[in-house]
Amino acid sequence: MYRKLPESEDSVLGYYVTGTVTMDEIREIHRDIDRAMDEHGTVRLLVDVRDMAAPEPGAVWEDLKLTPEYLRSVEKYAIIGDSRW
What we know:
single chain, alpha/beta, globular
């Protein structure tokens, strides 16, 4: 499960991820990021995964498929984790 952080605004997006992330959730996040990129050109991302379990294999694949596209449009990317990650 994920939730968009309330501080997210314009091209700055933050997400708090808990439990197991599904492929559908990854697609929802990607749509949100795509909208911000279309509107602002580039985005800045913060993802807090301290409470995330291993994602579904399909979710990992879905995320990796879009990585090359996002590399051009993500200005900054921060991941908050813990020693498990």
